[in-house]
Design goal:
With 214 residues, this protein is mostly helical. It folds into two domains: 92 residues; 120 residues, Alpha Horseshoe (Serine Threonine Protein Phosphatase 5, Tetratricopeptide repeat). The chain has 13 helices and two strands, in the order αααααααααβαααβα. Strands 1-2 form a two-stranded parallel ribbon.
Length: 214
């Protein structure tokens, strides 16, 4: 019953966000509308990407471009022109965004190239990503997965040190819609991996423990 109530609340929020954006426009309402499309039980990631594609010529933020590129990698099979835009912007981006773009380039190979393990570009993008001095977890974990255990251990240790917050099940259940539609929160959880659930934390710890046993 509680799940049904939550689902109806999110559905109303999404419809209102769409109406407000279509009526008034603006980057803040665009962000609210896009992020509302990522909430369960809606989770229309493809539409979130389409909304960004339809608006990046007139009103967009770096955060939405990053989220759009990530969602396009995970949930669409078409050309990822949003990531292409980020790559064109790369020379002018601050270090954090550069690190993210390198990671997204690697992630696209991970998802779309069946031979990513032998693709030197995959490793190179991850190495470039971790070369920036910014808190990042997922790039270290991805690189660790393709290294021998004695080398992988070091990168899992880096990953663990870069985790900023581990959310318990209770904390996640208590989060409001506003928490989930914050683009920084989305990037921290799904892209950087610095703000994660207890399940994700346990997964990384198990991999580190495995490396320490061998």
């Amino acid at each position: 019953m509680e799940t049904d109530v939550r689902g109806k609340e999110i559905d109303r929020f999404n419809k209102k966000a769409k109406e407000e954006f279509e009526m008034h426009g603006g980057i803040n309402l665009l962000t609210k509308y896009v992020m509302s499309e990522t909430l369960p039980p809606i989770e229309d990631y493809e539409n979130a990407v389409n909304i960004i594609r339809a608006n990046y010529h007139s009103q967009i933020s770096g955060e939405l471009l990053i989220i759009g590129a990530y969602l396009a990698i995970q949930w669409t099979h078409s050309t990822n022109e949003i990531l292409e835009i980020l790559n064109l912007m790369y020379p002018y981006l601050p270090e954090k965004e550069k690190s993210i773009v390198n990671y997204l380039n690697a992630q696209q190979l991970y998802i779309r190239d069946a031979n990513y393990l032998t693709n030197e570009a995959y490793r190179d993008e991850l190495i470039k990503s971790i070369g920036f001095n910014v808190p990042f977890v997922n790039n270290h974990c991805k690189l660790a997965e393709i290294l021998p255990l004695n080398e992988a251990r070091r990168y899992y240790e880096y990953a663990m040190k870069n985790i900023g917050k581990v959310n318990s099940e209770e904390e996640i259940m208590d989060m409001t819609i506003e928490n989930f539609i914050n683009p920084d929160s989305f990037i921290n959880e799904f892209i950087l991996g610095t703000d994660i659930s207890w399940l994700h934390f346990d997964e990384i710890k198990k991999k580190l423990d495995y490396c320490n046993r061998y």
